[in-house]
Design brief:
- There is one protein chain.
- Helix content is 11%, strand content 28%.
- Strands 3, 4, 5, 6, 7, 11, 17, 20, 21, 22 and 24 form an eleven-stranded mixed sheet that branches. Strands 12, 13, 14, 15, 16, 25 and 26 form a seven-stranded mixed sheet that branches. Strands 1-2 form a two-stranded antiparallel sheet.
- The longest helix has 16 residues.
- The radius of gyration is 22 Å and the shape is globular.
């Protein structure tokens, strides 16, 4: 009985703390901008206004509702996820795979470009179990796909790496395919225990790293995940199945009725890079809409982001916003290299089934997969399927109203350059 009362107290604290940080706002009378040639035609159901000018940030007087109708038995099930999965279940998606041999290998982390817009539609994004997106520099963002449970015949275009990618390579114990990196970044990895798992373009290694397209275009590097995995094994590098515990999946979670309504999520990294996710109740997935042109917040235009590999619009079963400490790895008048620290714990948000929840991310050791929890400590139940991780800085502000949530990325403070860096 005492254990049951303690469980109820824990859940009460969870209900108050899990979304206390969320803000809500009411739309003003501001009208959305006039449609342009690139604006997506409205669906039968009217979309929420997508302009930042239509929202005012206002603290919420009450936390968003969280329903916690648990029994003690159900609570124990939530708090003690099995550390063993059937051999044919992908620990990154919670789904059974069609060929269990795909799980008897390392995941593959592949750097995928998002700019210039002429590289779109990219190849293979829908085949990835996880995708990370973060701010690069010069108003641009880039993707990192994690491929494991299924193969993709073509992934790319592949571009260069950044310091943050090391977190992903280590925690997925992965093969890393990229198109090179700044010498200061490469110096961090060359000669370390990461070296055997780094795959860049070299003479004679097509496949798996092949150029497809015009010779004078640098956005022409692609890979095939099955060939990439075989290539590593042929080099004599260990390519066995790895421990990838850390995420919790539930198809029909008791928590789905809680949280706040999230029919649309907008993230503005910069005037050049912004996008939106729209929830589709019929499929229980979010569809991705991408910037159509460089624009002010009041004049944004969106186009569907398509995957060339399957011809479908990019979609996500789960979206996780990671609010990370952000800073500069290197800064000069000619070069800026950002870094994000995915270590320890921090705040964030998770979206599934048209709902948004305040969460906490936790990663204590380099080899640990990042885990997603409620602030009270219970694992967050992801919907079985793929996950998109949006990397934002800790102080990124947001607005909300009528089921629409908007986050506007905030760059870290720019330090004063030393005389040497100003050269």
């Amino acid at each position: 009985m005492r254990a049951f009362l303690r469980a109820l107290l824990l859940l009460g604290a969870l209900a108050l703390s899990s979304l206390a940080a969320c803000n809500s706002a009411q739309p003003t009378a501001t009208q959305p901008p006039a449609a342009t040639a690139t604006r997506v035609a409205p669906k039968k159901t009217e979309r929420p206004t997508h302009t930042a000018a239509a929202f005012k940030l206002r603290p919420s007087s009450t936390p968003l509702p969280v329903n916690t109708p648990f029994t003690l038995e159900q609570l124990a099930k939530l708090g003690n996820q099995a550390r063993w999965l059937p051999p044919d279940v992908n620990p990154l998606t919670g789904l059974k795979v069609s060929d269990v041999r795909r799980l008897e290998r390392r995941p593959m982390v592949i750097k995928i470009t998002n700019f210039p817009r002429s590289v779109r539609p990219q190849w293979g994004l829908n085949a990835a179990d996880h995708v990370y997106e973060y701010y690069l520099e010069d108003e641009l963002t880039r993707f990192v796909g994690v491929f494991y449970g299924q193969d993709a015949e073509r992934v790319g275009p592949i571009r260069s790496a950044r310091p943050f990618d090391e977190h992903l390579v280590r925690m997925y114990k992965a093969i890393f395919a990229f198109a090179y990196a700044d010498d200061r970044v490469m110096d961090l990895w060359t000669g370390t225990n990461l070296s055997p798992f780094l795959v860049i373009e070299r003479p004679g290694n097509c496949p798996p790293m092949c150029r497809i397209g015009a010779k004078n275009d640098y956005n022409t590097l692609y890979t095939n995940t099955a060939q990439l995995s075989e290539y590593i094994a042929a080099r004599g590098v260990s390519n066995d199945r790895q421990n990838l515990e850390g995420l919790h999946f539930e198809e029909n979670s008791l928590l789905v009725a809680g949280g706040g309504e999230a029919r649309r999520l907008e993230i503005r990294y910069s005037p050049m890079s912004y996008h939106a996710w729209e929830y589709q109740p019929e499929t229980r997935r979010y569809l991705r809409w991408q910037d159509g042109e460089r624009a002010s917040a009041e004049e944004e235009t969106f186009q569907p982001l398509i995957d060339s590999l399957d011809g479908q619009q990019v979609a996500a079963d789960n979206i996780v916003l990671l609010m990370l400490p952000a800073g500069y790895f290197y800064l000069s008048n000619s070069t800026e290299i950002y870094n994000y620290r995915l270590e320890g714990r921090g705040k964030g948000y998770a979206l599934r089934d048209g709902r948004i929840f305040a969460i906490e991310w936790v990663r204590h050791r380099p080899r640990d997969l990042v885990s997603i929890r409620f602030p009270g400590g219970l694992p967050f139940p992801l919907k079985p399927g793929n996950v998109w991780f949006e990397v934002l800085s800790e102080d990124t502000p947001h607005t909300s109203g009528e089921g629409m949530w908007r986050f506007e990325y905030s760059l870290p403070p720019r330090p004063t350059l030393s005389p040497a860096a100003q050269q």
